[in-house]
Predict the structure.
Amino acid sequence: MKKYFSSIVVVVSLLITSCSDVKNNNNNSETQGFEHQGGQEAVVDDESQKDVVKVAAGSPDHTTLVAAVKQAELITSLSNAGPFTVFAPVNSAFDKIDKSTLDALMTDDKKTDLQNILQYHVAVAALKAEYFRDGQSLGMVNGDNVTVNIVDGKIRLNNTATIIASIPASNGIVHVIDAVLLPPAK
Amino acid sequence: MNNRFFMAGAMILAGACLFLGCKPKNMNNAVSADAAIKAFVPPGQYDEYYNFVSGGFSGQMAVYGIPSGRLLRVIPVFSVDPEKGYGYAEETKGMLNTSHGIVPWDDLHHPELSQTNGEIDGRWVFGNANNTPRVARIDLTTFRTAEIIELPNSAGNHSSPFATENTEYVVAGTRFSVPADDVNGDIPISTYKENFKGYISFISIGKEDGAMDIAFQLQCPGVNFDLARAGKAKSHGWFFFSCYNTEQANTLLEVNASQRDKDFIMAVNWKKAEEYLAAGKGRKVKTKYAHNRYDESTHSAVSEIRDEVIVLDTKELKDICYFIPCPKSPHGCDVDPTGEYIVGSGKLAAVIPVFSFDKLQKAIADKAFDGEFEGIPVVKYEAALYGEVQKPGLGPLHTEFDGKGNAYTSFFVSSEVVKWNIQELKVLDRAPTYYSVGHLCVPGGNTRKPSPKYVIAYNKITKDRYLPTGPELAQSAQLYDISGDKMTLINDFPTIGEPHYAQAAPAELIKNNSVKIYKLEENHHPYVAMGEPTAKVVREGNQIHVYMTSIRSHFAPDNIEGIRMGDEVYFHVTNLEQDWDVPHGFAVKGAQNAELLIMPGETQTLKWTPDRVGIFPMYCTDFCSALHQEMQGYVRVSPAGSNVPLSFSTGGSAESKVN
């Protein structure tokens, strides 16, 4: 009995060894918290600086955002060369939104709406905090603009969200904000 | 008992296999099962298409076979190529001459095949030099650079080269606006808005010989011109240019050139420009630019500096140019095969606007303008707009067409190719690219008659696509079969440099015209040796001219003595072979130079200044024959003032001659 068992273990481990590359891929994806989607997010690279997606994924304060980015199928895009400026609302920012609205946004029926909101948090440009000017208009990926306000030395966006931290990433910069930005009503 | 354990083991095995995939990643969703059959070209068989792929920062152009992706040739264009002696041989140095002197490198972005009646004619392919603005013409009978013209009043020649439908012109728009060549350029950079202008060159192309000449330039407002396409069919006579940085920023364009919600596509009525030119409305501008032509009779570049260009001021001559608002930093500006639709791809835009040529004409007739920009009328967006493709993807860059009513647009940020129907403005299919796609190519996809079998995506980033090779990885091309409703990925292959853009032509248009040898009797090189009896060595002061021949498997002469320190030695090597695919190479020890690579019937010259006294071997570098390794010789270098007589021989003293 033992003999059989050990031979099976050998066969299984051989199999795993022979597929080691693939295994590493999956392991890596798991550690990032994403399923393998086959885009740049699946590239195995523990040496380079983290990209904006990995920065967010590594933050315990951004689990809601990361889940939303995943649901909106934006992970491949944000793993791109960019450069990106990502305004990343913390979990508590999402708590300010009505829970039923938030839950609805996370359904497949509302995917377009969710994409629109999340793309309103991304600009294609690496904008450090010091580049912001009061009254500046930022063209966001969804096609709408965000206005920068500088109030008492603090950088605010649309007069609703304040930048509370800025984290450089390999493909841009993540500015952590304390409120969710909502695209202007059409 | 045993059975149970066996079953359990089998299940573990099956589970592991399922979990681990046990096949290359991405295979499931991205590559069709019959990809191998579709992309496979059996050994010894020809490909269907030639694919002319820019080498980007390599400055060269590469030729691949499609569908196999096999590299057929790298054509040296704007960068020296020691492998071929290009830019090193005395004959080819002049091809790289500019008003700045010889420039050994550039950045080639866009190949453009010549057209007749709006279809690829297989005669020439043009390419642009981005850095030191130039346009090159490559002859597709020889696959060699035949001509290069420098562009005055320009900088960053990116919006270039794009051909009209009979190759009447190839146009070149400047990326960097700059002060004109004939005004004082020693001015503050911050005076961009007042002093910087954008110039567009209309290069006329000789109908028979392809000879390039700058017919005229258009002086336009100071913005960045990015890409362009000629009108075709009904819109022949017009040209369309994408413009960004209409904010006219001169610093941190990353922020400052994306402040406006709409930049422009500039529509140019070039037939009208021709009328003004004929009416003498042009201004003669003093400048300097090089024109270099390769003379196949003398096998030598002829380089001249020209000093005048005619400029038409589009602010004064009102009805040449019109601006059409186009969302967010347009890159691609592509005209569909009917000539009716102009597709703008704003790289920061959330929609793809499609403009109508007919509506544009009506808007111009009705003066449906929203004021002017720098003196150029701005057509109302809606007045020229056919419609918008909503939410097509992220970061639209460039569009090609299949001639069946569909467009294919690349999306850099979302790494995908999107197929959409032009009339319905509806997305039909999406295919991922690996990764970060730039331009696309459908063979003939920019012409009136596309060949809609494949679309090829040219990717900027390959990361894990190939075996790793350190920090720098090859960029790639990816081939999709578009013969069905869905795009299916069937092949990908690494490329040289940056495959920025490419065009493809059916092999039949080109392959039968390919030159196999240069006829020796037509060689009018001033230092040709038409046969071994005419091989000689001549001293002219401190210049030594070696009239050398090469044929399998020896050089004549192969022993040379009497060269002295302080001499400049010119080896003029004529390849006497009259046999396809038998070049000879030539190199000499210690030469601070490259090799020569001499085609059958051709003469090429290597300059060598000996740096020390001694014996210097020379040999054939291109494996030519069974006795290639015997194809060698010696040169003796004596001290300055030595009385060793100049002598040369092949095969012993019987042939030796004393000068």
User: Anything to note?
Assistant: The longest helix of chain B spans residues 2-20. Residues 262 and 327 of chain B are 4 Å apart (CA to CA). Chain B has nine helices and 46 strands. The first strand of chain B starts at residue 49 and ends at 54.
